[in-house]
Amino acid sequence: MNIAFAFKNFEPSDHLKKYARRRFEKLGRFLHKSENVEMTVNLSVDKFRHKAEVQFAGDNINLSAVEQSEDMYATVDMILDKIEAQLKKHMEKMKEKRRGGRADEHAFVYNTMLEGRERTIIGMEDKFSPKPLHLDEAALQLEQRRDDVFMVFLNAESSRINVLYRRKDGDFGVIDTGR
Fold first, then answer.
1. What is the signed CA dihedral for 7, 8, 11, 17, rounded to 10 degrees?
2. CA–centroid distance for 153 within its chain
3. DSSP letter at 37?
4. Nearest to 176 by CA among 156, 155, 157
5. Residue 154 burial (C-beta neighbours within 10 Å; 0-12, 13-18, 19+)
6. Beta partners for 114?
7. Would you say 173 and 167 are in contact if contact means Cβ atoms under 8 Å apart?
8. pLDDT digit string (tens) for 49-76?
9. Looking only at Cα atoms, what is the longest distance across the chain?
10. DSSP letters of 132-176?
11. Separation of alpha carbons 103 and 120, rounded Å
């Protein structure tokens, strides 16, 4: 992690530079394997106001924070807390993304016993409006999508939800929900 400091309206002491660098380097523990992280720290003094601005940029991350107080060391600590909270939140989002998405208020979970083991079924209550199609149009669309196994559509002839699926023998099967 590269840290660049800029100072405005005051001459920084070596102790302040070491203190700030030591504090900000602790953020590296959240970054695991990210080498391309740049951090810009702008410290300034206006009369009795000590202000710190931090820009944190790296692989898939861009954070910023501003803090001010009457003491530069306290300002560094406060802005570190802000950036650390943002970084924790970002890392938690990334972890959830790798796990397959966040559970939202429309998700439901069933625990069931299958083959002697407990299994979890996770589903989403999502608003889905299938397009009205004729059966041959749906078959043509499913044929064009080689990776898809099934297709849900509104049958234009019967106005009912149908599921068209690819069978193991290469043909298609249809499930009509109205029968």
1. -20
2. 31
3. -
4. 155
5. middle
6. 117
7. yes
8. 999 999 988 877 888 999 999 999 999 9
9. 82
10. EE-HHHHHHHHHH-TT--EEEEEETTT-SEEEEEE-TTS-EEEEE
11. 14
Tokens, residue 132: 């009205």
Sole residue written with tokens 């898809």: 148
Alpha-carbon separation of residue 163 from 23, 96, 120, 159 (angstroms): 58, 31, 24, 13
Beta partners for residue 118, in sequence order: 113
Over residues 64-123, the pLDDT tens digits come to: 999 999 999 999 999 999 998 888 888 888 777 777 654 455 555 666 666 666 766 666
| Coil, helix or strand at residue 93 | helix
Place of tokens 């001459």: 11
The structure tokens 């840290």 sit at 3
CB atoms within 10 A of CB 56: 23
